Amino acid sequence: MSRNAESTAFRSALEVIRAVEPRVADAIGAELTDQRESLKLIASENYASPATLLAMGNWFSDKYAEGTVGRRFYAGCQNVDTVEALAAEHARELFGAAHAYVQPHSGIDANLVAFWAVLADRVESPALKKAQVRQVNDLTEADWFALRRELGNQRMLGMSLDAGGHLTHGFRPNISGKMFDQRSYGTDPATGLIDYDQVAEAAREFKPLILVGGYSAYPRKVNFRILREIADSVGATFMVDMAHFAGLVAGKVFTGDFDPVPHAHIVTTTTHKSLRGPRGGMVLCQPELADQVDRGCPMVLGGPLPHVMAAKAVALAEARRPDFADYAQRIVDNAQALAEGLLSRGAKLVTGGTDNHLVLIDVSGYGLTGRQAEQALLDSGIVTNRNSVPQDPNGAWYTSGIRIGTPALTTRGLGTAEMDQTAELMHTVLTQTTAGANADGTPSKAKYTLDPALADKIARQATDLLAPFPLYPTVDLT
Ligand code: PLP
């Protein structure tokens, strides 16, 4: 597609929207400007391609398509079938998966689909068999009551939140924590690394139905072969949530023991983080779970979003191209260069570095909370997010960490030299920020002081750093 065609497509779309509600058109335009101008280090964000974005803005949005390809509860789904089948085929080929379900609307939804597929397979199906009935509607009231209790009485073992696990892995504020009796495994306090012996011991003691691997803030590779062995040793189903690092699996940076797909019974992911697709989720699984996974809608999902499945098909096709592997490798090279740049300037990093797309800075080394550091960096044009560190004394709200990641800046084309300059800008901000005090003189976890002139200067330097790497260079809205 030529430069002209992409600009024309977006410009025309905005014109059409502006005729109805100009404020929406303005906000869409302003979002592009903001994204172009910010040094985005949010580890979970990226920039989807123009083709992926355009695949979402059309009449597929109007179609109801409950069911699965070729087996819908609505008539007229032949075109939805085409894009859903394509997305699933690309996903299977890309990840070497036996089965792919591309309907989940988000990562949380993908996890819910996976949890209920496992519960249906391991708890509900045996109960139906025992009662000699085909479906839940045929159970007696007493058997149904007993099954509901049994479904709500299962155990999950996942990575603790402050070690980098995700809320949807059985934590109380999320529905998964209300569904499962959850225990978590942490990391070795000395190294910050997963201690597989400790995971094995926790599994032996707790005997979970599901062992969950995967994270949103762990900067290292995970050995999924070992986790599968642990799951097998206690009869657990092994599930991996690769939402954050799916792009590194797709790009073959994580292979062998570090690729979850051949080792896990079921794998969930988002499609919008390192995978660089539309906002959404996906489930990959072994053949024996496929039927249960395909019941995701209407079990826990509303009707599928055909326009997003079309965009998933486009993004997954892009991820199957050879240049995606190069992109994935550059994500990791950049994260390592950023980590090196920070370390060499004296920063304290959880695990001392990274071998994936993210870096976790322990900002207590700068005398700051995560909240103070996040805000001071934002004042200086650097967009990050605060995050707990292992055994965090400041809890999940203020935190002691800053999580940064390189998928987005790598998409723009920034390389290792720019990562070192980014480290310099961050280090300057963090060393020049001082923690503030409350009115009564006690240390504040939120207040801080940073010379506004310095913040402005850093923000200008961040803009200069981005200037040679325009975002969406083929899209000109003027
Ligand atoms: N799983 C992991 C590991 C994540 O990091 C996230 C998002 O941050 C999710 C699931 C949830 O994804 P979504 O926001 O698309 O529901």
TrEMBL record:
Main subcellular location: cytoplasm
Single GO term (MF): pyridoxal phosphate binding
Cellular compartments per GO CC: cytosol
Gene3D superfamilies: Aspartate Aminotransferase, domain 1, Type I PLP-dependent aspartate aminotransferase-like (Major domain)
This protein's pathway: Amino-acid biosynthesis; glycine biosynthesis; glycine from L-serine: step 1/1; One-carbon metabolism; tetrahydrofolate interconversion
Site note Plays an important role in substrate specificity, residues: 272
Modification N6-(pyridoxal phosphate)lysine occurs at: 273
Catalyzed reactions: (6R)-5,10-methylene-5,6,7,8-tetrahydrofolate + glycine + H2O = (6S)-5,6,7,8-tetrahydrofolate + L-serine
GO-annotated biological processes: glycine biosynthetic process from serine; methylation; tetrahydrofolate interconversion
Binding residues annotated for (6S)-5,6,7,8-tetrahydrofolate, in chain numbering: 161, 165-167
Cellular localization per UniProt: Cytoplasm
Cofactor(s) needed: pyridoxal 5'-phosphate
Domain Serine hydroxymethyltransferase-like: 19-120, 153-425
Stretches of the chain forming a coiled coil according to its record: none
Broad enzyme group: transferase
Listed InterPro entries: PyrdxlP-dep_Trfase, PyrdxlP-dep_Trfase_major, PyrdxlP-dep_Trfase_small, Ser_HO-MeTrfase, Ser_HO-MeTrfase-like, Ser_HO-MeTrfase_PLP_BS, SHMT-like_dom
Domain of life: Bacteria
Its EC number(s): 2.1.2.1
Keywords for the protein's UniProt record, in alphabetical order: Amino-acid biosynthesis, Cytoplasm, Methyltransferase, One-carbon metabolism, Pyridoxal phosphate, Transferase
Function, as annotated: Catalyzes the reversible interconversion of serine and glycine with tetrahydrofolate (THF) serving as the one-carbon carrier. This reaction serves as the major source of one-carbon groups required for the biosynthesis of purines, thymidylate, methionine, and other important biomolecules. Also exhibits THF-independent aldolase activity toward beta-hydroxyamino acids, producing glycine and aldehydes, via a retro-aldol mechanism.
Quaternary organization: Homodimer.
Family stated for the protein in its record: Belongs to the SHMT family.
Name listed for the protein in its UniProt record: Serine hydroxymethyltransferase
Organism: Micromonospora cremea
